[in-house]
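U., I forgot to send this yesterday:
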Amino acid sequence: MLNRRGVLAAGGLAAGVLGVPKLLAPAEGHENPRHTVHTFQESKTFTGTKPEIVPWTRPMPVAPVLRPLVSTAKQEVYQLSIERTTAEILPGLQSPVMGFGGQFVGPTIRAKTGRKTLVMVHNKMDEAANIHLHGGHVAPEHDGHPKDVIEPGATRLYLYPNSQQGATLWYHDHSHDTEAAHVYLGLHGAYIIEDDSERALNLPSGAYDIPILLRDIQFDDSGNIVVFDDPTKRTVVLANGVPQPYFEVAARKYRFRLINSANQRVFKLKIPGEKFTRIGSDGGLLANTLELEELVLSSAERSDIVIDFSKYPIGSKVVVTDAVAGEILRFDVVRRASDHSRLPAVLRPLPVMPMSTVDREVDLAFLFKPNDRPDGTINGKVFDMDRVDFTIKRGATETWLIKSSDPTGVKHNFHLHLVQFRVLERNGGPPLPSDAGLKDTIPIIAGDTVKVQATFGPYTGRYVFHCHFLEHSWIGMMAQLEIVP
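Result:
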């Protein structure tokens, strides 16, 4: 059971994860009255050992790009299903999963700034689900609010205006009470917005522009996915759904769009002896390229990087490692190719920040109870869909101080719907390199403070903000804002 002692112990884990009890129930008052919470069979045959995986024997797949049913100069129309299916994640074993389009990693949707995307989503499962476009600037009725679910057998239309600049987004389930389980079981995929100004930079594109969803997972001894056990037992790391895959590359520049789709893990990535060239964050391109020896990605964060393989001889093996999991992905340089792409040091100016008119505080914390699991809270309150926590004037620019009053070292994560924000400072000093650019998700460790600034609009209505360690938001660490005229 997750209690005060368990939190204190988990808070110091190098992986940046927090233990969660098996088959944890939602917080009181957080249940969905219309739906029965799906319970998953607890594995009876899990030995606690990592499955035996022979590394570098399977290629990393690249999710197919979803084809539109209709494509015009103004909009593209897509059809997408939500299904229960199986996937061969461990070699030779078929694991029950959920998938958009029947795939454990959903198809990639590529959109263009200024051209609308309409997605008709049909739920083929036996329980409600929905889609949230994470990082998307969309109207509230299309945001995938936890209450706006697609019932079994029903179809829902989502409209994404793509009014924002080019960026690496992702889509995932956000249904009330079941988001954490659904995302963990596979309801996630990449959504990429491209724009003309970015295209003019001539960055690597086409077959050399690759989205990679990174996450962790736990299996029982039969290859079934274990849901809601201790996250530290999620010892298998997947790149696009495959553990320790290789990916063949040409000796030229590649753009990799890294998405941390794990429920509650912080990746600390390195290429031993090399540096990452980071060009993009959650909300799009950075102002300038950044050279980093280590790339930190908390759950739901994105980072666009460029790796130039032209300096490697044919036959080279370039390995990406994680501070906890070790070797997770290998690039094999197998051929030469022409390369007319560029990697300019100056990319795109960030928008000018208006003057802030409102200051707020957001405190992410557990509410401990004797002999029971804690509730997740924001500013001392468990999520309630009937309560508005912040009322915000449309067009207003606000400064939020994000913190956690939990015991020092406990890790959380903060995600704001509808808009991206700028990180102004951490602990009264400059932001971290991982805070650069436009952000919608950041890690926060208890004892630290992070000051961010955002401008709210153009829509009015209700949106949520929450910890994106999904087991934390599931037990109530979520709140609601309403933008008013």
